[in-house]
Amino acid sequence: MGWTGVLRRLFAQPDEVMLETGAGGELVVARMRAWSSPLLLLLPLASHLAGGASAETWVGVFAACATIACSMLLLHLAGQHGRYRWLPFASGTFDISIITASLALLSLYDPAAGINSMVIWSFYLISIFLTALRNDGRLVAWVGLLAVLQFWALGAWILGGHSAAQLASPGYGSANWGNVIQRLVLLAIATIVTATIIMRMQRLIDLAGTDSLTGIANRSWLGYRFPRLVARAQARGEDFAVAIIDLDHFKRINDEIGHLAGDRALCHFIDMAKQELREDDWIVRLGGEEFALVLHDTLPVARARLDGLRRHVADSGFDPGDGLAPCRITFSAGVCAFPHDGPNLLTLLGRADKRLGIAKRTGRNRVVADDSQVQGLDRADALPAA
To answer: Where are the domains of the chain?
Structure first.
């Protein structure tokens, strides 16, 4: 994969599994932020006990209280579990900006500390690494870039506004552009490492949810995404259809032609199906020669589309290769609709499977969308039952 492919993958919209787990990661980060932010009150307390100026102490108290309030607000929003897609970007911006503001305030008392304070500066790295919990490469790039730009601007402001003597500190050493550049390089490296982790996580999720033979989604993929589909359909008052497709006499292909030809037949069917399906339709391999389809249509429309797919597959013919004679592939299907036939995946698959059984018992090569009768029989196309 070239640099163009890497960048395209990094800035691509994460899939629903990544976003779902990322919402949980945002909540974890929000809790960590909320639990640790009260510790900021120790800073003005320490300043007061050390005999610091009253104004300085009250500024510290105000800043700490404002940070705590913002942290609690972010925790409340994160508790909505993915409702606000912009929240990770807002909280990431907040974290980086708080770190930069802390360094800027520190530089008012010791200019060198604003650049060389490793304790505060290290929170830049922590904030970047924590973006890995949100599972979004775009967020990693944003937070990393923001950290680089803010620290560069802070360094330019401190170095440009103080003399060399002012930039020398007994406790923090000498501040110079060399120190700034070194830290900028470290921030860039941390961003690259975190982005690599995100891309590897996405790759593993892709592999876990993909059927290795056909390249389409598998049953685990369907089970994870289906509840979100149901929630969206309920919120919008929409219908959708679920179908189970079973290739007719597939065992005969495996036994008489060979398992390699059987694999080719499965891939041939998927190629034919993709020509008929829309971009928002789902096709999933349940196992063996059985597939599930999710069509964003009413039941009558979905049944008509499936019947069109059935005819297309039957008319296309299948060449098994290796000099073997071409053969004909057909399928039987049972289809049902949400919410009329069931509220969840298990119920809908059960209803579709029952109708698939009707299609099998009544001659195969047909689509059944009703429990009580067989619709749209086409006896001229039907294959004899095995």
So the answer is: 3-208, 217-374
Region of 365 on the Ramachandran plot (φ > 0 left; ψ -120 to 50 alpha; else beta): left
What tens digit of pLDDT does each residue of 260-294 get? 888 999 999 999 999 999 989 999 999 999 999 99
Q: Which of 245, 236, 240, 246 lies closest to 343 in space, CA to CA?
A: 240
- The answer to whether the beta carbons of residues 321 and 294 sit under 8 Å apart is no
| Assigned token pair, 349 | 């698959």
Widest CA span in the chain: 97
Band of pLDDT at residue 201, cut at 50, 70 and 90: confident
DSSP-derived 3-state class of residue 306: helix
Q: Cβ(244)–Cβ(353) under 8 Å?
A: yes
Fold exhibited by the domain 217-374: Alpha-Beta Plaits (3.30.70)
Q: What is the mean pLDDT of the chain?
A: 85
pLDDT by residue (tens digit) across 125-170? 999 999 988 888 899 999 999 999 999 999 999 999 888 888 888 8
| DSSP state letter for 325 | P
> 367 has which bridge partners?
333
